[in-house]
Design brief:
single chain, 250 residues, alpha+beta, Alpha-Beta Plaits, 2 domains, eight-stranded antiparallel barrel, five-stranded mixed beta sheet, elongated, binds manganese (II) ion
Length: 250
Amino acid sequence: MPAADKPAAIRAVVGGAVQGVGFRDATVRRARDLGLTGWVRNDDDGSVRVHAEGEPAALTELEDFLRDGPSHARVERVDVEKVRAEGHEQFATRGVAAGVFVVQEHQATAHHFDLRLEVDGVMRSWAVPKGPSLDPAAKRLAVQVEDHDLAHNDFEGGLGNGGVIIWDRGTYEQGGRVPWPEALDRGHAVFVLHGEKLRGGFALQRTRPGAKPQWLLIKRRDDEARPGSDLVAERPESVVSGRTLDELLG
Ligand code: MN
């Protein structure tokens, strides 16, 4: 398309008394009213960060909104920079837990780790033979398996001729440019884990559809990435009991 029609994009950092005053929700409403896409999140330093893309005139209006904020906010500064449009399909709040996740190490006929993410009241599940990694270069095969009940998340113990330990668990945020669960349906889902062992951004990329779809589980490059590490070897224990799977089976 011609350059003039290309969506523009901005990143804004809003400083002041801007958290805990409904700033994110108000920004989402305003941005959606303006037909913009992107995200808003509360940052650890107390600021609110915004990525917005769309019509330049609408971006200018959003900037004006950010300088005032909702009624209980006290905005002290807004730093805006022009950035590249990323192709977001919604305007969403980031940094809010979407539900729980669990990784269960499972000795069955074959040894594997079950990654489960809460989506719409069920645990979407993938069997990861080598287990998750914090090394962005380690692309781990993840075979999609049947959804599980949330009640199974707490299970640790003997199962058949094998057993299960709760290798990691916590909450997660849905991310990416496409809303969930559509992101999973399309075969590319980005998320942020807040576990005891697994932290930071991850991606699930479907590589082969079909009856047992195959995906790759990949650590994204961020502050939590640990190139060259082998987390499964370093931290074999259950986060609930401290036992390893070998100890449980022994
Ligand atoms: Mn399993």
